[in-house]
Amino acid sequence: MVERKEYLEALLSWKDEQVIKVVTGIRRCGKSTLLAQFQQRLLKDGISSEQIVSVNFEELEHEELQDYHRLYAYLKERLVPGKTTYIFLDEIQKVPEFEKVVDSLYVKPDVDIYITGSNAWMLSGDLATLLTGRYVEIRMLPLSFREFLSLTGLNEEEGLAEYLHHGGLPYVAQMNRTNEKVEAYLEGIYNTVIVKDIEDRQSRRESDPAKRKITDIALLKTIAKYLASVVGSPVSIRSVTDYLISSGRKVSPNTVDDYVEALTESFIFYPVDRFDIVGKQLLKIGKKLYIVDPGLRNHILPRKTYDLGFTLENVVYLELLRRGYKVSIGKLGNTEVDFVAEKQGELTYIQVTADMTAQETFDREMRPLTLIRDNYEKLILTADHLTVGNYNGIRVKNIVKWLLE
After folding, report:
1. CA-to-CA distance for 95 and 167, rounded, in angstroms?
2. Helices (H), 284-343
3. Hey, how many other C-beta atoms are within 10 angstroms of the C-beta on 96?
4. What's the rounded Cα separation, in Å, for the pair 201 and 316?
């Protein structure tokens, strides 16, 4: 098993706290493994096995527990009087009205609850209302570049090429990677997310007539392919709709909005707002979408030409999320800064480029940062080594070294 140290430490830091621990993330990013590792840590620390109750709703033997009444009775029976019972519910979104079970257990003494889910809607609607202030979300991503290198044993140069091409899903890093095997594995995950998670989403929303159903999987995949092709560029529901209409599809903006929402809720794409650097406020238009894994992007969008710059930008975005930053796109007049990363009130302005050795590129990447008048950190990340240095307070770093920090 791949040990995800940062996520494991995050869970341990919340152990025995009176909040529900919710681990979310795309399928096969390691959520179930994380729970298993946490349970092993509990046993190592002297917690008895009878105090640990674990249900994985992907397993057929637990299918009958997808009825929330039966699930509650099953869990209640296994509570250990006078000791803390640690309850783990994996892929809980498969249980309609699971929030009633979680809420009832939460109010009992000596119960510590951990749940996982592969779809963001599990934290919306009824659950969010019922459990406001009662849960903490730990958002799990595929392997970082540092984790990928550690697992594969590759050197930095070979590792970066593999990481950008095949991605960082944990099993991809462990397998004997050939293009054919990685492609087959990613195909399975992609189809499972597109079909199975959307199906789970439908069952949860059947009671809400305001929510349109996702019925056209071909349309969903077409939209996903388009979004993968415009990673790093501003996108809107109107621009996606116009693209589909120009391709011969008759579709309304409302339908497109629902389908894009389904893709973001299943953690395939992450929307990023724009931030007015002068006014220090978020803007309502001009969002960008980034994809959860570069390997998945290459699967969705096979192509002959390789847009290294946008791929690196995507990798930097995900790494900033891993490091706990809130990320937005910076707008400064008619210019743009790739990322404004905020943590604990401090900002970092970041530009990402594949190569800065050409003077024209150097000037283009520097210009937006030179226009910013505040004193927050300004950083350019590049794949080249020749331009690394400090230019009047603007630091240029090699992206590989930054990823390994």
Report:
1. 31
2. 294-300, 308-322
3. 15
4. 30
- Summary mean pLDDT of the chain: 92
Most confident of 172-181, 274-283, 294-303: 172-181
Task: Please enumerate in sequence order all residues whose Cβ is within 8 A of that of 262, keeping only pairs 6 or more positions apart, or say none.
Answer: 198, 201, 214, 220
Q: Locate tokens 């462990």: which residue?
A: 174
Q: How would you classify residue 264: left for phi > 0, otherwise alpha for psi between -120 and 50, otherwise beta?
A: alpha
The total number of residues shown for the chain amounts to 405
pTM beyond 0.85, yes or no: yes
404 contact partners, CB below 8 Å, separation of at least 6? 145, 146, 149, 156
Name the pLDDT band for 323 (thresholds 50, 70, 90). very high
How would residue 249 be classed by pLDDT, with cut points 50, 70 and 90?
A: very high
Could you tell me which of 45, 110, 50 has the C-alpha nearest to residue 83?
110
The answer to whether 123 touches 22, Cβ cutoff 8 Å, is: yes
Q: Which residues fall within 8 angstroms of residue 95, CB to CB, at 6 or more apart?
A: 57, 65, 66, 67, 68, 71, 89, 101
Confidence of residue 307 (pLDDT cuts 50, 70, 90): confident
